[in-house]
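Example complex used in Figure S2.
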Amino acid sequence: MQIASQQFRERASEALLDPNIRTAFDGLKTGFAAARARSVAALPEFPAMREAARNIRTHTLENLDLYLERYEEAVRAQGGHVHWAEDAEDACRIVRDICRKAGAKIVTKGKSMVSEEIGLNAVLEADGCEVLETDAGEYIVQLAKETPSHIVVPTVHKTVQEISELFYERHRAYGFEERVTEAADLIAQVRAIMREKYFTADVSLTGANFLIAETGSNIIVTNEGNGDLASMLAPVHIVTAGIEKVVPSLNDASALLRMLGRSALGMETTAYTTFMTGPKRAHDLDGPEEYHVVLIDNGRTKMLDGPFREMLRCIRCGACMNHCPVYLSVGGHAYGWVYPGPMGSVLTPMIAGLEEAGDLPNACTLNGRCQQVCPVDIPLPDLLRRLRHERWEAGFVKQTVRWSLGLWAWLATKPRLYRSLTRLGMAVLHKLGGKRGRFRRLPLAGGWTGSRDFPAPQGQTFLDAWSKGAKQP
Amino acid sequence: MVQSETKLRKSKGPHVGLFVTCLVDLFRPNIGFAAVKLLQDAGCRVSVPAQQVCCGQPAYNNGDDAAARRIAKQVIETFADFDYVVGPSGSCMATLRKDYPEMFEDDAKWRERAADLSARSFELMSFLTDILGARPMPASYPGRVTYHDSCSGLRKLGIKDQPRQLLSQVEGLTLAELQDSETCCGFGGTFCVKYPEISTHMVSDKVANVESAEADTVLGGDLGCLLNIAGRLKRLGKPARVFHAAEVLAGMTDLAAIGEPDRKPEKK
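Predicted assembly (741 residues):
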């Protein structure tokens, strides 16, 4: 997927003018965020569970090599294949080769953000495969030739009317002539189309919410059951997963699952939690003949080996974006790549590059809400601030910002000079703003006065008044 | 430090260095004087070191760590000899308390000094309640007020009940809770001028919640947020007045509210 994060500002401005985006993302606040709050409040042990979840992730990352090897061994023991991919290109090539070997014409897909990250669909399509997303949200996004705007609910930006229109146009190919507008009818169309494809698919592809080192299983959670059908019915199943997805045991996975549903949607658990372990065995009635796992690094070991390790604890619940006032204002597409919101503003520079990610780390007020709701307590504001430092050091910060901040910082270490200058400055501003007590316009402050009055200063500075012995200004 | 603290408490109460914060110094000295009054009423000896400028947060949050450290060192030196360092801002005091020790991770000498300052640094309202257990002198403010929880104070310093506890003792004051009071107002330091449109969107939500709370006054503990909220209220021609909570607690609301014209007409 083409990265457009450097255009965040422009994309955000456009989004702010779109009333549909406003309504859609407000819905996240009243929907998921409120549901999360209720489910957390209903569980007195939630803080303890959160700490346990955090510890499981931290422990796993500290011993990642060990657990990955154990996982690989377990998958092989079950008759599955494990492939290691260093980067996106590598991962796509591996998947493409498996598909070629299987003579794949139709590939059904469960939801996989890492497949978005590596740009897999385009590679497979260029190789002549028909790739079909089976998660309803992903399917809609694919049909509309768009990208997900949220990592859990990819179509949050689309209205029912838009989806109705889209289906009316595109589903005629499947024999649906009538226009339907009700959610249930829309879903029924998707289901009918999918059923057919599940049976004719040559390869199925899913992501993984967790990989279990103990058993060699992968877990996916869905609310539609599409992942189960896709992976059970195609002769070849490929799992794509970031290397950080591994957890030591089933118990650990279950501790994390308890956090995932609640943090993401305010649900105790998702409708489906599917455990997949190896290919079909002799006595199994269903299941794939071949089972492959592609373990994708794509910048993750680099993160593991530095100050951004904590980001790898992420379990992709989306709580940080559901609670981010910036994300809720501008929506997911403004961020310009696969992962939006706070977690995306850390992951995008780490995976796609500091320069390519543009100003994302600065598109944040450091209000801390994201860390507060993060089920594994990732210090997102600290990581974003650290990225700002890296951008500063790398020279990616605009010269005007560098100069003005530099001048201010220099002045801040010269208290006497600072005081004389501010004494004069505040007196002048007070006089100018005097009668109204505020400014509607102020040179060099357009960013503020474009939409807000600028309150005029009281006149004398505090330090000046204090030194002159005033008790009251 | 422990020794001098005990001694002082016995004699004249703790010696507090007021960290006035740059915004209060420049824009609204009244808040600084209100802080002094509240601290003195609570039995503190208050000094205001003249060497103070800013906590360095703008540099730190923009990624210029070297500049932030230079400023931090100056603050650490300036406030080395007080029992406590207290300021009327959750954001600035969180910088002293939380960020300074982190800034000097790789510098043993300064890390220790930063940790020492950190342990003595408090936001005004939490200092009055949590440390001094003080009941402010009776003040009165007849009105229906609402309270915005500024993010740094709330999440980095755990300031939530303290201002409410203090305000509940103000005569005539009714507190109407603000919907989404814990949601950022869109100020975010330099964020508000770097991303003015997003910031405006956020502060407009805040203003809408002020209106639905039917409050005539908005209070808070951080002047940055208050300038932002007042600026938007005034631009939209809304009547709600904006004060720092310290001004109300100290009974110092005779001055025009933030962004309002001087009460006394200027001499012609």
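Confidence is low (pLDDT under 50) at residues 1-10 of chain B. The radius of gyration of chain B is 18 Å.
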